[in-house]
Amino acid sequence: MAIKSGQHKGGKTGAIKNGSSKGLMKALALLPLFVFLLFTACLGIFFGGCTKPQQFSAPPAGAQRKVRVVATIYPLAEFARQVGGGRVEVTQLLPSGAEPHHWEPSPKDMVKLHQAQIVIFNGAGLEPWAGRVLPSLRARGIRVVDAAQGLDLLTFAEEKRLGLTIDPGSPGAGGPKGPEERKDLAGTEAPEGEHHHRHQEDETAQKKTGSGGFGADPHVWLDPLLAGEIASRLAEEFTAVDPAGAADYEKGARALQNQLDRLHQEYAAAVRKFRSRDFVVSHAAFGYLARRYGLRQVAVLGLSPEQEPDAATLSRVVDFCREREIKYIFFESLVSPRVAEMIAREVGAQTLPLTPVGGLTPEEKARGLDYFALMRQNLANLERALGE
Ligand SMILES: [Zn+2]
Predict the structure, then answer these.
(1) Model pTM?
(2) I need a labelling partner for 124 at 20 to 30 A (CA). Which of 19, 322, 325, 363 fits?
(3) What is the 3-state secondary structure (H, E, C) of 199-226?
């Protein structure tokens, strides 16, 4: 910084030394350019190569240097801690209580990202800001992990076509009065009312927002088996940076996968007893869960919780709930329950929490709840809503 402003000054006085007032004018004309270059240089220093060596926390003498990992959202940080064990130091970028779809990194977060050796993104469009940061992370040699990469992803259009999601907010959504009878993935008859004539149009629209946009469903961690694939992937990535830890990482990933498998078995056993498959949620976070366990989500707010439902959407949801005799409306811990309560009042249903587990609330954190506790709480509430 000091050197740059020195150069700036030097350039100006050099021009003045030329003697003529023309030279001075020239120098003055160039001043905005200098200022601009200085400004961009500062930005470059900040976003590109901002970290001074002394900013790295130096390990105490004799202590093993831990691999510095930054994970964007809570479930990825949780998986990274379990796979990495004592060999890694995991920083969770999104604070507890942050709603992942709305969040943007601050300059402080940029510093955290640039101090990491490994940065784990969810990918699949959950972090639209990632595209602005990735080039400078890669330029610094930081290993960037796109956790959703290589998983069997769905777009929201596919979820609708497959009968995993009903988005009553999309114009032309059939709602409960639609004439079409369909088969769902499990081969059982899906209730009428899907609107799969819409999917072509949806997919075109999504291609426009594609490549990191909301075309793909990012909520992969809600399927325990996809989460297990992420665990293996993290072990590989950690090993690439810290080969001496290969066996530890493999062990950590296996232990996590065993827990995830148990969770999966619990879900699979419980859904076999469900009497109904349709659950009404705020936003369409449960598509992968629905695919894995043969369920279907009705997403009042559509694809992202920032969207507010309009009156027409609400009345379609209310019709749907009445027709299906829906007894419980789910709400999310990180989003206001207002809409869920409104619908519940309208149709005489009760509300229950169903968390997308993208982040812990401060209360959940204080109570020591983790991914597994919340997934089991979700299952208990799904059983209550769909099992009776
Ligand atoms: Zn979400």
Answers:
(1) 0.75
(2) 363
(3) HHHHHHHHHHHCCCCCCECCCHHHCHHH
